[in-house]
Each structure stands twice: as C-alpha cells, then as structure tokens.
Amino acid sequence: MAPTQSIDPFDLAAQAADALRERTGIQTHDIALTLGSGWGGAAELLGETVAEIPATEIPGFSTPALEGHVGTLRSIRIAGDDDAPRHALVIGARTHYYEGRGVRAVVHGVRTAAAASAKTMVLTNGCGGLNPSRQPGTPVLISDHINLTATSPLEGATFVDLTDLYSQRLRDLARTVDPTLEDGVYAQFPGPHYETPAEVRMAGVLGADLVGMSTALEAIAARHAGLEVMGISLVTNLAAGIQETPLSHEEVVEAGRAAGPRIAKLLAEIVRGVK
C-alpha cells in the first residue's frame, strides 16, 4: 500500500470504514466516541462489545503515543436498544497534532466515523482549567473553541460555518443526565509542552477557560463531514500560573484515574440518550 500521506484522506477513511464493517459485521455505527485521558472506562458501560480491533490493523490508524489511550477500535451494541439496536464506534487511537504525523492523521478517526455512517461524534479530553472553582475531576461541556494550532484539517477552498459547532441539543441532553454540568470554551494549543502562565492568561483574555492539545481540529473535521458534535472536557489540573505546583503528565493521568468511574457512568448515560 502507498504511504497514507499520499492517499486522499477521504478515500483512506472509506477504506478504514470498509475494514471495520468486514471485521465487526456491523454495517452502520450510529454514534462515535473518541475517548481522551480519563474517559476510557465509558466504553465498558455503553453495552456489549461486538468486536475490538487493534488500531494498527485498520487503514490509517497507528498506535497511540500517549498513556491513557488504549490503541483499539471497538464496536459496541448500545445497551437498552433491544427493539432497534444501535452501535457505537469507540476510537481509542487518537493521534495528537504534536506527534508530527500531520493534520490528516489527527482527524482520520473522525472521518472514519463519518464513513462508517455515524451521525454523532463525541469528543472527550483531559484539560487544564482556568477557573479555580473547577477543581480536578470536574467535567465541562465544550460550548465553543479557540484553535491556536495555526492550522486546519480543511484543505483548499473549503469553507465551513462553525457558528454552532458544538451542539446545543446534545448539551441540553447532557444536562438532563447531570444538571450541574457547565459550559466552557476550549483552547487547543499545539503542544506537546504545557502552556506558560502568560499563554494561559492570553487564552483567558481571548475567552477560553479550558486549555489542552486536542479536540478542536477533530471538531472542525467532524462538522465538515456533517456530524453533530458533542465535546466534553475533564479538568485534570489547573492551568499553569493558576496552580502553584509544576504541571506533569503523571498528574493528568492520576486525576483521570480518580475521576474515571464517575465520568464513565456520566458519559455512558448521555450516549444512551442520544437519538
């Protein structure tokens, strides 16, 4: 096979979707989820796993570079849909922009979800929080984002309206499960270094109250593909300059681990309610 960088990204996504249909026996996945740091346990609560496939066996995917991402794609029959079974595609193989594999690789999972007939894309992440009242372990619904990567997943004269990128309908649905969920604006930095205190202050001036290294590019690609988008962040730490101690990836992983059972249950209940 030719290197994936030389293949049309939508053709590659179609190949990946065909491989998923062949390996899972499921022709249509209704909803797709990319599970970021801390969110992986939700897959266990969604329903019955029909198939779990190593990401490297599906065209265009690679082994995740980050601890906390499982490196598989799972097809799950959503619990409670006995009369009209629905299936979720759980993408545990996120590629981050800082890995240097190119923007096409970053959004390949989203485009594969669309090619697999999904109508809804749920994007989750672990992030730094700018609001001291949102302590580590707090889930926040993404209402908008600021893309600070200086790039886009769209190529050429491709113009897409992002006014209502993060679905109000899905956020309202989420609050029927947990009325305490708040909205937040997420700023994606390129990484992999953490933001400086000055950069965090800049993000706050621009209107962000969450900072991280994923999600925004994927959300843009999802909107372009016609998917309805929900974004949920888990505050794993207060951002640089807001907390007094140095930031570390170990802190992020530990906060995700501690919050895991609670946020997994929350996300599974939200997904089961998506129609």
Structure, described:
This protein has a five-stranded mixed beta barrel, surrounded by four helices. The protein is of the alpha/beta class and 275 residues long. Strand 3 and strand 4 form a beta hairpin. It is globular, with a radius of gyration of 17 Å. The protein has helices at 9-24, 42-46, 103-106, 108-115, 168-177, 197-206, 216-224, 249-273, and strands spanning 31-34, 47-54, 72-78, 87-91, 120-129, 138-147, 182-188, 210-212, 228-238. The protein has eight helices and nine strands. The model has no long low-confidence stretch (mean pLDDT 91). Helix 1 (9-24) crosses helix 4, helix 4 (108-115) runs parallel beside helix 7 and helix 5 packs across helix 8 (249-273). The chain has a single domain, classed as 3-Layer(aba) Sandwich (Rossmann fold).
Report the radius of gyration as a whole number of Å: 17 Å
Could you tell me the mean pLDDT? 91
Main beta sheet strand tally, sense and closure = 5 strands, mixed, barrel
Q: What is the CATH architecture annotation?
A: 3-Layer(aba) Sandwich
Give the topology.
Layout: H1 9-24, E1 31-34, H2 42-46, E2 47-54, E3 72-78, E4 87-91, H3 103-106, H4 108-115, E5 120-129, E6 138-147, H5 168-177, E7 182-188, H6 197-206, E8 210-212, H7 216-224, E9 228-238, H8 249-273
Parallel strand pairs: 1-4, 1-5, 5-9, 6-7, 7-8
Antiparallel strand pairs: 2-3, 3-4, 5-8, 6-9
Helix pairs in contact: 1-4, 4-7, 5-8
Question: In short, what is this structure?
Answer:
The protein is of the alpha/beta class.
Keywords:
alpha/beta; 275 residues; globular; five-stranded mixed beta barrel; Rossmann fold
